[in-house]
Amino acid sequence: MRLDIISIFPEYFAPLDVSLIGKARRTGTLDVRVHDLRSWTHDRHRTVDDTPYGGGPGMVMKPEPWGEALDEVAPAGGAVPRMIVPTPSGRPFTQAMAAELAAEDWLLFACGRYEGIDSRVVAEASTRMPVSEVSLGDFVLAGGEVAVLVMVEAIGRLLPGVLGNAESVADDSFAPGAMESLLEGPVYTKPPEWRGRAVPEILLSGNHGAIARWRRDEALRRTAAHRPELLGRLDPGKLDKHDRKVLADAGFPEHGEDMAN
Ligand code: JQB
In this structure, is the dihedral angle defined by the CA atoms of residues 15, 18, 19 and 24, taken in order, positive or negative? Predict the structure, then answer.
């Protein structure tokens, strides 16, 4: 997969030399190219921002350097990347979107700063390539760089051969897409007792059926406690009697037992 990243802070992407993504780059699974937006400016001060039309606080990224950058990185008449623009007003980035993007051959990330990029840049780019405005969540970052690092890590670990252990991706969940409905429960490793705290006995039992049941109970309890809105996405047909009891005990009788059973 090819990834182009355009930013006024190319140094932000040093972490992409490290760990899973760094290895994927060295082995050729990932071709990452980081570009300095200021290389497409022509004035002495390498200006990328200007005051907002209509007034208001802060500055807005000028369209001209972006236009030249996109023309050079993704020239007309050739292959077309999918462009991703992080912005707090974008569609939520999810695991499903990470999986969809991991199937692309070429992604182009455009990192804004200040109050964002002149809107005509996305409008014009959209006539030449698919463009998605994406948000990591309901908080405000100072720019798109950290959002791109997050997305590249989420996408990169899904690429064939990037995680050493092929099972690690599938096991994020109990079933395909389940990470969108149930949180993971707690995990433990050796030693069996640490600072007076024992590992739950069931995990040492060797009873794989009972362990799977316990893990599911913990996942249901954690989801009820931390992300109750996710319970509404559970398929009621996939909840057994025990699941319904766990959810009722966690304070969600509407997903749990009905009065009849
Ligand atoms: C500039 C960004 C995010 C990109 C994601 C997320 O855009 C703004 N609007 C108002 C105030 C400040 C900004 C700063 N800013 C480019 C830019 C913020 C992404 C961003 C984001 N993806 N929060 N913030 N979840």
Answer: positive
Is the model's pLDDT at 34 over the cut of 50? yes
Residue 191: asked if its preceding bond is cis (omega within 30°), the reply is: yes
Given 86, 118, 157, 217, which residue is catalytic?
157
Angstrom distance (rounded) from CA 58 to CA 126: 26
Provide the whole-model pTM: 0.94
DSSP β-ladder status, 131-135 and 82-92: parallel
* 125-174: pLDDT as tens digits: 999 999 999 999 999 999 999 999 999 999 999 999 898 755 466 655 43
Look at ligand 1, atom 12, and give the residue with the nearest C-alpha. Answer: 115
C-alpha 83/C-alpha 203 separation (Å) is 45
Mutating to test ligand 1, I would choose from 87, 109, 117 the residue with most ligand atoms within 8 A of its C-beta, which is: 87
- Which residues make beta-bridge pairs with 35? 6
Instruction: Kindly give the distance from the C-alpha atom of residue 137 to the centroid of ligand 1, in angstroms, as a whole number.
Output: 10
